[in-house]
Amino acid sequence: MSSADTGTEVTEEAPAVDERRDAIVAAVAARLGDAVVGSHVEPGVDVWVRVTRDGWAEAAQAVHDLGFTFFDFLSAIDWYPNIHGKNEEPPTNPITVPATSAELEHGVTGGETRFQLIARVFSPEQKLGVHLRCDLPDDDLSAPTWSRIYPGADWNEREVCEMFGIDFPGHPNLVHLYLPGGFEGHPLRKDFPLLARHVKPWPGLVDVEAMPGEPDDDAEAEGSEAE
Amino acid sequence: MTVTEHERAFITSTLSESRINLEIESDGMTLNLGPQHPATHGTLRIIVKLDGEQIVACEPTMGYMHRGYEKLCEFRTFPQVTTLVNRIDWLSHFANEVPFILAAEQLMGVEAPPRAQYIRTVFFEMARLGNITLFLGEMGLQLGAMTALFYAFRDREHVLNLLEAVTGGRFHPNFDRIGGLKDDLPKGWIDETKAVMKKIRGFCDQMETLVMGNEIFQTRTRGIGVIPKDVALGYGLSGANARASGVDLDLRRDNPDIAMAWKHADFKVWTHPDGDSFARYWVRLQEVRESTHIIDQLLDGIPAGPIMAKVPRIIKVPAGEAYVQTENPLGWMGYYVVSKGDLGPFRVKIRTASFNNVSVLPWVAKGLYVPDIVTVLASLYFILGDIDR
Q1: Which member of A107, A133, B13, B67 has the greatest number of CB atoms within 10 A?
Q2: What is the pTM of this model?
Q3: Which A residues 63-122 touch B at CB under 8 Å?
């Protein structure tokens, strides 16, 4: 096979339609109704379902009842651009900050707000996992806790709370997990600077220049230099 | 009515939850365990509240080793991240690199050539051997049996020497690249590896009689720290901890879509119905044996060909999201990678095995006696770097 000879495999032979994962989306949508606001199926790879914040706790119960009893993880994504850049000198990436959160670049399931929760649960019978997403309004960063349905969510929510400043009403013990008690700020937010890089810029990032004597006609190389 | 040890442990833990202690009624006291760990897996502090000698509440305190890898990853380019993630669980080194590289490859639409997949899988299993052989000896140490540890160090050395011969690093190989591997295997390495696999199997036999056959070891582990199946699932316990509770899950078998060579090997996934500390030791011992057989089979079937796919010199990963999870020595490890088409990732969520495995500790410790918590901690087997990240 020619692709094997060159050592490159451009596309995986994935089925265009993934019935098992489509069925998951349909089952969750049937249970939650209007609370499902978006979904994305990557055939043969993964599945995402985005629900409203009011449906967040019910979504956990729904997937738990559907057999997704294995709790994988719960975390959050801050879609705000990395306004501190990578602290390279001079900055190669001009940062543009959109006026509203809805204009931010969101991932596969879209979104309206700056912060999104993401959780993954797994079904031991089907051997499949599903990602659940939900938007958190900018003026009220809170979501109902999952820890009553999935006890493993307890520590994950504590971590999200200290790292992103998201509140989980109903959580039994929402105190810092890693950070010392008096720590100020939420380190995984994009506007929290990585102070070590301010003190001493890291030299590793400039290490992507072309080697001397090499022809510089590589499209990728030019793309990165223009940036 | 006869009550099995399994049921008795469960009843004891339920009783203590409602603070009924039939033997002693006292005000209780607080005991601080750690932060030093007897086997230096890191610094974990555990605050236990006691009623007499029974534990009524247990609160692990972490963060002494939190290095902020999720934040640091946002400031690195994709190839540079492997150096970081090597150090998450320092005993699983190579196994930590693989899921991240696979996630980046999935976003780029690149797949490593078959030979690279085979070698990757062999190294992955060798990380497992190095990790779990140490556990097999070190659990004995934590229960007061010193000898087993020296055997474990002796035989782990063979595995580390093999890794060093190929990668140059004993603990941090940093060998995996997007699209393949850094180098091919040196001459004669395959025969040498097969000889070492025999030694590791011999080591397993030794541990079976020396540790598992020991009466004291059995008394201290059987029926201690029972984790039922539904609790294991709810807390997200994975790897040998879950399989010891009867959860028949192993991503090496259950996730054949990823570009690794486990699908070409024939191996058995061992589970144990008891869910106690003894079961966790037993399952890991079998896992090491199976692992040596996987390596033997893969080395026999290793195909010729290139070890690197064609990837651009400057790696830019297209925008998208990918989550790749593998069965690491300690359990499931996954990277949720969000890319915006830059040189580096936009966000990396690292799902580590020990984090979920240890989160069950407050549940399981209730109703145990103080020495038992050492047994449970040893058998849950965690690396602090894997919890704190």
Answers
A1: A133
A2: 0.82
A3: 69-73, 75, 77-78, 82, 86-87, 93, 105, 107-108, 118, 120
